[in-house]
Automatic annotation (TrEMBL):
<dbReference type="InterPro" id="IPR051120">
    <property type="entry name" value="ABC_AA/LPS_Transport"/>
</dbReference>
<dbReference type="Pfam" id="PF00005">
    <property type="entry name" value="ABC_tran"/>
</dbReference>
<protein>
    <submittedName>
        <fullName>Urea ABC transporter ATP-binding protein UrtD</fullName>
    </submittedName>
</protein>
<dbReference type="InterPro" id="IPR027417">
    <property type="entry name" value="P-loop_NTPase"/>
</dbReference>
<dbReference type="Pfam" id="PF12399">
    <property type="entry name" value="BCA_ABC_TP_C"/>
</dbReference>
<keyword id="KW-0067">ATP-binding</keyword>
<dbReference type="InterPro" id="IPR032823">
    <property type="entry name" value="BCA_ABC_TP_C"/>
</dbReference>
<dbReference type="GO" id="GO:0005524">
    <property type="term" value="F:ATP binding"/>
</dbReference>
<dbReference type="InterPro" id="IPR003439">
    <property type="entry name" value="ABC_transporter-like_ATP-bd"/>
</dbReference>
<keyword id="KW-0547">Nucleotide-binding</keyword>
<keyword id="KW-0813">Transport</keyword>
<dbReference type="InterPro" id="IPR017781">
    <property type="entry name" value="ABC_transptr_urea_ATP-bd_UrtD"/>
</dbReference>
<feature type="domain" description="ABC transporter">
    <location>
        <begin position="8"/>
        <end position="247"/>
    </location>
</feature>
């Protein structure tokens, strides 16, 4: 398989903050429809890798190819338009809008909150809202104000808002932080569903959750890959136990 067959091919990626290499000559390859989980101790560089992919942080050296297109030269907006979605830890939903409206304003052709509330709803938008609402288990509460949702539902709504743009790569930073056990299980099912037609990268510390979702796990340590592969192999790796799992 050549590198051009991967959805995402990261090669020799390095970022240096005042001489400190937070990410150091990283190579990582993500397949189509793969759900990859990135784990590792605090400060390992996990969030920085996602920041580099989505263009929030600019690399010092190396390459990030998404469907063979170099991302390191693109702006954050261009990267979103290329098909890369990123969810941060704190949800950025519109609390005073309904679930429906939150999804509707996220439709790519919408023109921001105020413009989109008044635009003529095309059938395509309505269909897309219902399709995504079903996917995020919110079809029955489309009329509910987002402020009234549970913490877990707010996280799912934000995932739904990203799905409205049909990204081919979706990146999530600790999606189950603060969720109940039931919400964690439902989120695992949700992620297993959504990676059926896109690639997903998740940063996560909850190993029970990682086991339920990961196709492959990448362990980062000091900006480099310490281990990579199936969860059971990674869990049994002595170096991984020493720097991360044993703590
Ligand atoms: N913009 C920045 N300027 C300077 N240093 C930074 C910057 N961003 C990240 N770092 C440093 O890079 C290192 C990696 O941070 P990062 O947030 O990527 O780690 P992480 O693996 O996501 O950790 P955590 O699990 O705690 O979220 C840390 O030492 C951090 O202080």
């Amino acid at each position: 398989m050549s590198n051009t067959d991967f959805v995402l091919a990261i090669e020799d990626l390095t970022v240096s903050f005042d001489g400190f290499k937070a990410v150091d000559k990283l190579n990582m390859y993500i397949d189509k429809n793969e759900l990859r989980v990135v784990i590792g101790p605090n400060g390992a560089g996990k969030t920085t890798v996602l920041d580099l992919i989505c263009g929030k942080t600019k690399s010092t050296a190396g390459s990030i190819k998404f469907k063979n297109r170099e991302l390191t030269k693109l702006s954050e907006h261009e990267i979103v338009r290329a098909g890369v979605g990123r969810k941060f830890q704190t949800p950025s939903i519109y609390e005073n809008l309904t679930v429906y409206q939150n999804l509707e304003v996220s439709y790519p052709k919408g023109r921001g909150v105020f413009g989109s509330l008044f635009f003529k709803r095309s059938d395509a938008v309505v269909a897309q809202v219902h399709k995504i609402a079903k996917e995020i288990m919110m079809e029955d509460i489309l009329g509910m104000e987002a402020a009234l949702l549970s913490h877990g539902q707010k996280q799912w709504l934000e995932i739904g808002m990203l799905l409205m743009q049909e990204p081919e790569l979706l990146m999530l930073d600790e999606p189950v932080a603060g969720m109940s056990a039931k919400e964690r299980d439902q989120t695992a099912e949700l992620l297993n569903r959504i990676c059926q037609n896109r690639s997903v990268i998740v940063i996560e510390h909850d190993m029970e959750f990682v086991k339920k979702i990961a196709h492959k796990v990448t362990v980062l340590h000091q900006g480099k890959i310490l281990a990579e592969g199936a969860m059971d192999k990674v869990q049994a790796n002595e170096k991984v136990i020493e720097v991360y799992l044993g703590h």
